[in-house]
Amino acid sequence: MKTVFFSVKALLLLLCLIAANAFANEVVNLNTADAEALSRVLVNVGPAKAQAIVAYREQNGPFKSVEELANVRGIGLATVERNIDRMSVGGAAAAQAAPASRSVAQPAQRRVASTGGNK
Fold this sequence. Notes:
The chain is mostly helical. It is 46% helix and 3% strand. The protein has helices at residues 2-24, 35-41, 47-60, 77-82, 91-95, and strands spanning 28-29, 87-88. The termini are far apart.
């Protein structure tokens, strides 16, 4: 009987770990998510803060970076850092990497040493 109890307990623990991992891997797009999704996925973001995020987005346009979330009233840098792996700004514009600017090396100018002046 004890063996069955421990097996059930181990199975429940395993299921809890799998479920927790599934929630931990969920990512929310700050530019498309509704308030319910934001409050469900983001840590320390309840319904009021989630609604503030949506209102900020509607007033200021799409987020350009996840760090911009700190501009929302009630959201601090600690909340942004805590949720950095749970957020994206998505979209085609974000997916396209800007081409790296390539600097072309210029040859150094040579200085001719003076040999003592004009006599």
